[in-house]
Amino acid sequence: MLILREPQDACRIAHPGIRALIDLRFQQLGHFQDGLLIVVEVGDSVDDLEKVSGMAILNDQFENVPFGHPDFSPSFDYLEAHHDEAQHVYCYELHQDTGDDGLGTTLIVPAEEGIADGLLALCRAFATAAVDAG
Questions:
Q1: Residue 102 has what pLDDT?
Q2: Strands of 2-4's sheet, edge to edge?
Q3: C-alpha torsion sign, points 70, 71, 76, 78
Q4: How many C-beta atoms lie closer than 10 Å to residue 37's C-beta?
Q5: What crossing angle do the helices spanning 117-126 and 46-53 adopt, rounded to 10°?
Q6: What are residue 82's DSSP bridge partners?
Q7: pTM as predicted
Q8: What are the beta bridge partners of residue 106?
Q9: Which stretch of DSSP H or E encloses residue 95?
């Protein structure tokens, strides 16, 4: 996983669409010293992502109900699918506020083989289409 803090960190992203999204978020928000911006990489486990982010991803954070159960309630504030010009999803943006100040944790999840299956399934099940240019 890549943890990004400053605008120049975007150069670490190989995918042009994801790099453009990261650039846009830094333009909008400045930096991520008080929040977390994480780009998920192939091979990252959901357990590791949960430990680093402090987020409950595949379990309801209050009832510990797993994703896939009818009573599952996701803990994120929004989950958007970002599309390329051909309308193919290239990544998902999952955000959870950690306070009333709008700070929080954002996960950028590439829509590619090798990303944790449960995470991609969650993204596909709950994502709405992104409304910005990202």
A1: 62
A2: 2-4, 36-39, 104-110, 89-97, 78-83, 128-129
A3: positive
A4: 24
A5: 70
A6: 91
A7: 0.90
A8: 37, 95
A9: strand 89-97
Annotated domain spans of the chain: 2-129
Predicted confidence at residue 101, as pLDDT, reads 65
Alpha helices in 11-101 (DSSP H): 16-29, 46-53
How far apart CA 38 and CA 15 sit, in angstroms, is 15
Specify the length of the chain in residues.
Answer: 134
Distance of CA 37 to the CA centre of its chain: 8
Residue with tokens 């994801």: 18
Distance CA 13, CA 16 (A): 8
CA dist., res. 105 & res. 38, Å (int) = 8
* pLDDT tens readout for residues 77-90: 899 999 998 899 99
pLDDT tens digits, one per residue of 12-54: 999 999 999 999 988 887 666 667 889 999 999 999 999 998 8
pLDDT above 50 (res 56): yes
